[in-house]
Amino acid sequence: KGPDPDVVAIAERLATVKHKILVLSGKGGVGKSTFSAQLSFALAEMEHQVGLLDIDICGPSIPKMLGLEGQDIHQSNLGWSPVYVESNLGVMSIGFMLPDPDDAVIWRGPRKNGLIKQFLKDVDWGEIDYLVVDAPPGTSDEHISIVQYLQATGIDGAIIVTTPQQVSLIDVRKEINFCKKVGVPVLGVVENMSGLRQPLSDLRFVKSGEPGETDATEWALNIIREKAPELLSVVTCSEVFDSSKGGAEKMCIEMGVPFLGKVPMDPQLCKAAEEGRSCFADQKCSASAPALRSIVKKV
Ligand code: ADP
């Protein structure tokens, strides 16, 4: 039996892509698409040529997160053309093909696999440095086929996104074991929504109302600012989810995979995602952007 013609076609198509990164999560709603979108923005801002492929077929949120809602894909004799945010950031998603964004895609495995295969085979990315693949959550049949197809041309590895609580981490362990089993290197784990960190300017001080009386919160913060500025992030950060068992970092040590870092919950990041913007473009995402930037540097 000769080589699978689909695998050969995909390998040929993706020969112009230098690095392929798969973004995975054990569960939905942990911020995988947000991370994929911001990773792509960050790589593009570093002047790389970037492609973002959204194969989360049941919940394609990438068009919205990149500010591309309502856009169409075009076909040329070279294949399907991605939709471009910038000349060096192209995006492909099933979301572009749905007539109505409210349409639920309820497809069975083989049809989903068919579309994923077609995406990998027919999208004309051109010469690019990075292809970021936003995969569906969990470990399903689709994942096995994605990995098989990507492995034919070499895949750099997977980044796994999780939240700090045990229910999410249990699924991440499964995800890591899946990667080990199918031979995809784990580039690392990102702990998202890790505490709620508020910049000091956002803190509402309790004013006593009495003129001349020192406001207690401001007074305490001033002392910390002066004597131990490194503690500011601690006093302005509250844990949202229970991470008393050590969170993702401890799990990474146990499982022998790299821990890439924590991204706090940041209302401004959520807003940037809703509005399809990069969180690095201005100073608004002061709680999450520095964390994301340091993670991107490790990738
Ligand atoms: P997934 O792809 O894992 O299903 P999403 O990326 O769609 O998750 O994120 C779910 C929601 O949470 C989105 O509204 C997103 O903007 C928001 N979100 C993700 N990460 C953060 C964060 N660190 N702070 C605030 N909101 C976030």
UniProtKB/TrEMBL annotation:
SUPFAM superfamilies reported in the protein's UniProt record: P-loop containing nucleoside triphosphate hydrolases
Record: residues binding ATP: G26, K27, G28, G29, V30, G31, K32, S33
Gene3D superfamilies in the cross-refs: P-loop containing nucleotide triphosphate hydrolases (3.40.50.300)
GO biological-process terms attached to the record: iron-sulfur cluster assembly
Pfam families: ParA
Molecular-function GO terms, alphabetical: 4 iron, 4 sulfur cluster binding; ATP binding; ATP-dependent FeS chaperone activity; metal ion binding
Signal peptide: none
Miscellaneous note of the record: Although plant and algal NBP35 proteins lack the characteristic CXXC motif in the C-terminus, thought to be required for Fe-S cluster binding, they can bind a [4Fe-4S] cluster in the C-terminus. Also, in this linage, no CFD1 partner protein homolog as found in other eukaryotes can be found.
Subunit structure: Homodimer and homotetramer. Predominantly homodimeric.
Function: Component of the cytosolic iron-sulfur (Fe-S) protein assembly (CIA) machinery. Required for maturation of extramitochondrial Fe-S proteins. Functions as Fe-S scaffold, mediating the de novo assembly of an Fe-S cluster and its transfer to target apoproteins. Essential for embryo development.
Name of the protein described by the UniProt record: Cytosolic Fe-S cluster assembly factor NBP35
Encoding gene (name): NBP35
